[in-house]
Amino acid sequence: MNDEVFRQTVHFLMGVLGAAILITVQPRTALIFLGVVLFIGFAVQDILTRGYRIPALVVLVDEAERRGKVPMKGGIAYAISALLCYTAFGPFYTAIGLVTLGVLDSVSTLVGIRVGKHTLYRKKSVEGTLSGIILTFAILAFFIPPWTALFVAVVAGVVEAFSPIDDNLIIPLATCIVLALCCFTV
Protein backbone atom coordinates (compact mmCIF):
# COMPACT_ATOMS: atom_id res chain seq x y z
CA MET A 1 0.00 0.00 0.00
CA ASN A 2 1.56 3.33 -0.95
CA ASP A 3 1.92 6.16 1.57
CA GLU A 4 -1.02 8.24 0.34
CA VAL A 5 -3.45 5.30 0.28
CA PHE A 6 -2.42 4.37 3.82
CA ARG A 7 -2.69 8.00 4.95
CA GLN A 8 -6.15 8.42 3.46
CA THR A 9 -7.29 5.09 4.91
CA VAL A 10 -6.24 6.32 8.35
CA HIS A 11 -8.00 9.62 7.65
CA PHE A 12 -11.21 7.84 6.66
CA LEU A 13 -11.12 5.50 9.66
CA MET A 14 -10.45 8.36 12.07
CA GLY A 15 -13.50 10.20 10.74
CA VAL A 16 -15.81 7.21 10.98
CA LEU A 17 -14.46 5.76 14.25
CA GLY A 18 -14.30 9.18 15.91
CA ALA A 19 -17.93 9.79 14.96
CA ALA A 20 -19.00 6.38 16.28
CA ILE A 21 -17.24 6.94 19.59
CA LEU A 22 -18.68 10.42 20.11
CA ILE A 23 -22.28 9.36 19.54
CA THR A 24 -22.11 6.18 21.61
CA VAL A 25 -20.42 7.30 24.81
CA GLN A 26 -21.61 9.59 27.59
CA PRO A 27 -20.83 13.32 27.11
CA ARG A 28 -18.23 13.42 29.91
CA THR A 29 -16.50 10.34 28.47
CA ALA A 30 -16.51 11.92 25.00
CA LEU A 31 -14.87 15.08 26.32
CA ILE A 32 -12.27 13.02 28.18
CA PHE A 33 -11.64 10.99 25.02
CA LEU A 34 -11.11 14.14 22.94
CA GLY A 35 -8.85 15.62 25.62
CA VAL A 36 -6.76 12.44 25.75
CA VAL A 37 -6.47 12.35 21.94
CA LEU A 38 -5.35 15.97 21.95
CA PHE A 39 -2.87 15.34 24.77
CA ILE A 40 -1.41 12.28 23.02
CA GLY A 41 -1.15 14.21 19.74
CA PHE A 42 0.82 17.01 21.38
CA ALA A 43 2.97 14.54 23.34
CA VAL A 44 3.86 12.54 20.22
CA GLN A 45 4.57 15.73 18.30
CA ASP A 46 6.83 16.93 21.13
CA ILE A 47 8.69 13.62 21.28
CA LEU A 48 9.29 13.59 17.52
CA THR A 49 10.24 17.25 17.16
CA ARG A 50 12.79 16.85 19.97
CA GLY A 51 14.48 14.15 17.90
CA TYR A 52 13.52 11.07 19.87
CA ARG A 53 13.05 8.02 17.64
CA ILE A 54 10.66 5.46 19.13
CA PRO A 55 10.63 2.77 16.40
CA ALA A 56 6.93 1.79 16.34
CA LEU A 57 5.85 5.40 16.69
CA VAL A 58 8.19 6.63 13.96
CA VAL A 59 6.99 3.98 11.50
CA LEU A 60 3.33 4.84 12.10
CA VAL A 61 3.83 8.60 11.86
CA ASP A 62 6.08 8.25 8.81
CA GLU A 63 3.38 6.23 7.04
CA ALA A 64 0.47 8.45 8.12
CA GLU A 65 2.04 11.87 7.55
CA ARG A 66 3.17 13.52 4.34
CA ARG A 67 6.90 14.06 4.00
CA GLY A 68 8.18 17.40 5.24
CA LYS A 69 5.06 18.22 7.29
CA VAL A 70 4.86 18.90 11.00
CA PRO A 71 4.32 15.53 12.69
CA MET A 72 0.82 15.00 14.11
CA LYS A 73 -0.42 18.39 12.86
CA GLY A 74 -3.42 16.82 11.13
CA GLY A 75 -4.33 14.68 14.14
CA ILE A 76 -4.08 17.64 16.49
CA ALA A 77 -6.21 19.79 14.15
CA TYR A 78 -8.75 16.95 14.01
CA ALA A 79 -8.95 16.72 17.82
CA ILE A 80 -9.21 20.50 18.27
CA SER A 81 -11.98 20.74 15.68
CA ALA A 82 -13.85 17.76 17.15
CA LEU A 83 -13.58 19.24 20.64
CA LEU A 84 -14.84 22.65 19.51
CA CYS A 85 -17.69 21.14 17.50
CA TYR A 86 -18.66 18.79 20.32
CA THR A 87 -18.84 21.55 22.91
CA ALA A 88 -20.60 24.03 20.60
CA PHE A 89 -22.90 21.77 18.58
CA GLY A 90 -23.18 18.44 20.39
CA PRO A 91 -22.40 14.84 19.49
CA PHE A 92 -24.61 14.30 16.45
CA TYR A 93 -23.46 17.38 14.51
CA THR A 94 -19.87 16.58 15.42
CA ALA A 95 -20.28 12.99 14.23
CA ILE A 96 -21.66 14.24 10.89
CA GLY A 97 -18.72 16.65 10.67
CA LEU A 98 -16.17 13.90 11.29
CA VAL A 99 -17.80 11.54 8.78
CA THR A 100 -17.87 14.37 6.26
CA LEU A 101 -14.17 15.03 6.84
CA GLY A 102 -13.21 11.36 6.65
CA VAL A 103 -15.15 10.58 3.48
CA LEU A 104 -14.73 13.84 1.57
CA ASP A 105 -11.03 14.33 2.13
CA SER A 106 -10.08 10.69 1.54
CA VAL A 107 -12.15 10.21 -1.59
CA SER A 108 -11.30 13.55 -3.17
CA THR A 109 -7.58 13.02 -2.55
CA LEU A 110 -7.42 9.44 -3.84
CA VAL A 111 -9.61 10.07 -6.89
CA GLY A 112 -7.77 13.31 -7.60
CA ILE A 113 -4.42 11.51 -7.54
CA ARG A 114 -5.65 8.63 -9.73
CA VAL A 115 -7.81 10.37 -12.35
CA GLY A 116 -7.65 14.10 -11.70
CA LYS A 117 -6.84 15.92 -14.91
CA HIS A 118 -8.46 19.33 -14.43
CA THR A 119 -6.95 21.52 -11.74
CA LEU A 120 -9.50 23.38 -9.66
CA TYR A 121 -7.23 25.16 -7.19
CA ARG A 122 -3.65 24.49 -6.19
CA LYS A 123 -3.35 20.68 -6.23
CA LYS A 124 -7.10 20.06 -6.01
CA SER A 125 -8.78 18.56 -9.05
CA VAL A 126 -12.31 18.90 -10.36
CA GLU A 127 -12.61 15.11 -10.56
CA GLY A 128 -11.45 14.57 -6.99
CA THR A 129 -13.62 17.33 -5.56
CA LEU A 130 -16.77 16.19 -7.39
CA SER A 131 -16.27 12.54 -6.47
CA GLY A 132 -15.72 13.51 -2.82
CA ILE A 133 -18.90 15.59 -2.82
CA ILE A 134 -20.96 12.83 -4.46
CA LEU A 135 -19.83 10.04 -2.12
CA THR A 136 -20.12 12.28 0.94
CA PHE A 137 -23.69 13.15 -0.06
CA ALA A 138 -24.55 9.48 -0.62
CA ILE A 139 -23.27 8.48 2.82
CA LEU A 140 -24.71 11.46 4.71
CA ALA A 141 -28.13 10.87 3.15
CA PHE A 142 -28.41 7.78 5.37
CA PHE A 143 -28.20 9.96 8.48
CA ILE A 144 -29.73 13.33 7.59
CA PRO A 145 -32.36 14.50 5.08
CA PRO A 146 -31.11 14.32 1.48
CA TRP A 147 -31.34 18.06 0.79
CA THR A 148 -29.35 18.77 3.95
CA ALA A 149 -26.83 16.05 3.03
CA LEU A 150 -26.39 17.60 -0.41
CA PHE A 151 -25.92 21.10 1.01
CA VAL A 152 -23.41 19.85 3.60
CA ALA A 153 -21.47 17.86 0.99
CA VAL A 154 -21.27 20.78 -1.46
CA VAL A 155 -20.24 23.34 1.17
CA ALA A 156 -17.67 20.94 2.66
CA GLY A 157 -16.34 20.17 -0.83
CA VAL A 158 -15.90 23.86 -1.62
CA VAL A 159 -14.25 24.45 1.77
CA GLU A 160 -11.93 21.47 1.25
CA ALA A 161 -10.96 22.64 -2.22
CA PHE A 162 -10.43 26.34 -1.55
CA SER A 163 -9.79 27.00 2.14
CA PRO A 164 -6.23 27.88 3.14
CA ILE A 165 -6.99 26.43 6.60
CA ASP A 166 -6.13 22.79 7.39
CA ASP A 167 -9.11 20.68 6.28
CA ASN A 168 -8.99 18.64 9.49
CA LEU A 169 -9.67 21.86 11.36
CA ILE A 170 -12.21 23.53 9.09
CA ILE A 171 -14.39 20.80 7.50
CA PRO A 172 -16.03 19.54 10.72
CA LEU A 173 -16.67 23.13 11.84
CA ALA A 174 -18.09 24.15 8.44
CA THR A 175 -20.31 21.05 8.49
CA CYS A 176 -21.67 21.86 11.96
CA ILE A 177 -22.35 25.46 10.96
CA VAL A 178 -24.24 24.34 7.84
CA LEU A 179 -26.30 21.89 9.89
CA ALA A 180 -27.14 24.65 12.37
CA LEU A 181 -28.06 27.08 9.58
CA CYS A 182 -30.31 24.45 8.01
CA CYS A 183 -32.03 24.23 11.39
CA PHE A 184 -31.54 20.49 11.31
CA THR A 185 -32.57 18.97 14.64
CA VAL A 186 -31.79 15.57 16.03
TrEMBL record:
GO MF: ATP-dependent diacylglycerol kinase activity; nucleotidyltransferase activity
Domain of life: Archaea
Protein name: Phosphatidate cytidylyltransferase
Alphabetized UniProt keyword annotations: Membrane, Nucleotidyltransferase, Transferase, Transmembrane, Transmembrane helix
Organism the protein comes from: Methanoculleus taiwanensis
Native organism taxonomy: Archaea, Methanobacteriati, Methanobacteriota, Stenosarchaea group, Methanomicrobia
TM helices/strands, residue ranges: 31-49, 70-89, 133-157
